[in-house]
Design goal:
Radius of gyration: 26 Å
Shape: flat
Structural class: mainly alpha
Strand order of the largest sheet: 1-2
Order of helices and strands: HEEHHHHHHHHHHHH
Number of strands: 2
Low-confidence stretches: none
Mean pLDDT: 88
Strand content: under 5%
């Protein structure tokens, strides 16, 4: 009887585990279906297309070219121009986003008057669509805009200058996206126990020492997130380029994703575009891993 009871108990536990597994699978099924249809399938389809001279109107007539698209990419000057522009854009924006967001987060955390209002104003640009942001800044960069009026004698037309067009887009991006990173860093700063600062002050540590020995280590997870997410997002810059410069002047603001858009929707060179897309994916994975290894060493799980 005892053996039967034990066997029955084990069977009940097994049945419950199986039911939980089944319920978990059913719960995840909608996401798996959407993920497969809109991400996994296009991912595999893109890889397949990258080995073809793809015929948009008659895919069955597409010509298999093997690695020719990837070989072409290595000698494509516009691809290298786009890669250089994108890298320069990331260098201009990611450190700026981190520094500006950190300064604002630490400033508001000090309990200044009207901080709720300031939080609102800092976050508002982030909820705007990129088309609205582009329209607003086009007015500022216009021939009668504030930038041209006050800086025109030094830099000329900002968006018509090959030197200043990309930094101008970077400035727009920092203004637009600071609110998001600022919110992340502020939440992280507010989790740092105040007793650590009280103990540091008792030991005679000044503000800079407290920032270096307490604030930065305690906020390391958030800082690593800002760096990795910022790098990935800025590598995919598209909307600002499309709405404000269309890649000009003289291709000086063509970025990788904008170049991919041109290949896919303007010249309809889909096979080559798929190859460029996969190279962008590999670059993003490599940069993220490198970023995590260098900056994220010792980050908590």
């Amino acid at each position: 009887m005892a053996t039967r009871s034990t066997t029955g108990g084990v069977s009940a536990v097994t049945d419950r585990v199986d039911r939980e597994t089944l319920h978990g699978f059913l719960f995840a099924l909608p996401y798996i279906a959407v993920f497969s249809a809109f991400l996994f399938y296009p991912l595999l389809k893109g890889l397949y297309m990258s080995f073809f001279e793809w015929d948009l109107l008659n895919p069955a007539q597409s010509e298999f070219v093997g690695l020719a698209n990837y070989s072409t990419l290595l000698s494509d000057p516009l691809f290298w121009q786009a890669l250089t522009n994108t890298t320069w854009f990331v260098v201009l924006t990611v450190p700026s986003l981190l520094v500006v967001s950190m300064v604002i987060a630490l400033g508001i955390n000090r309990g200044i008057k009207g901080k709720k209002v300031l939080q609102f104003f800092y976050f508002v640009p982030y909820v705007m669509t990129v088309s609205i942001v582009g329209f607003l800044w086009l007015q500022l960069y216009a021939s009668n805009g504030v930038f041209t009026v006050y800086l025109g004698k030094y830099v000329g037309g900002v968006l018509t200058s090959e030197t200043f067009a990309l930094p101008a887009l970077s400035l727009v991006t920092v203004w637009w996206q600071t609110g998001f990173y600022f919110a992340v860093l502020l939440a992280s700063r507010q989790k740092v126990p105040e007793r650590l600062y009280e103990a540091a002050r008792l030991d005679g540590a000044g503000p800079w020492r407290q920032f270096w020995d307490i604030t930065l280590p305690q906020m390391k997870n958030a800082i690593v997130f800002v760096l990795i997410a910022g790098t990935v997002f800025q590598f995919q810059v598209f909307g600002q380029v499309e709405t404000m410069t269309s890649g000009g002047p003289s291709q000086s603001t063509v970025t990788l994703v904008y170049y991919l858009y041109q290949l896919g929707f303007q010249t309809f060179d889909l096979g080559y575009g798929a190859a460029v897309g996969y190279v962008i994916l590999l670059i993003l994975v490599g940069v993220s891993v490198l970023n995590y290894v260098i900056v994220g060493r010792g980050v908590d799980e």
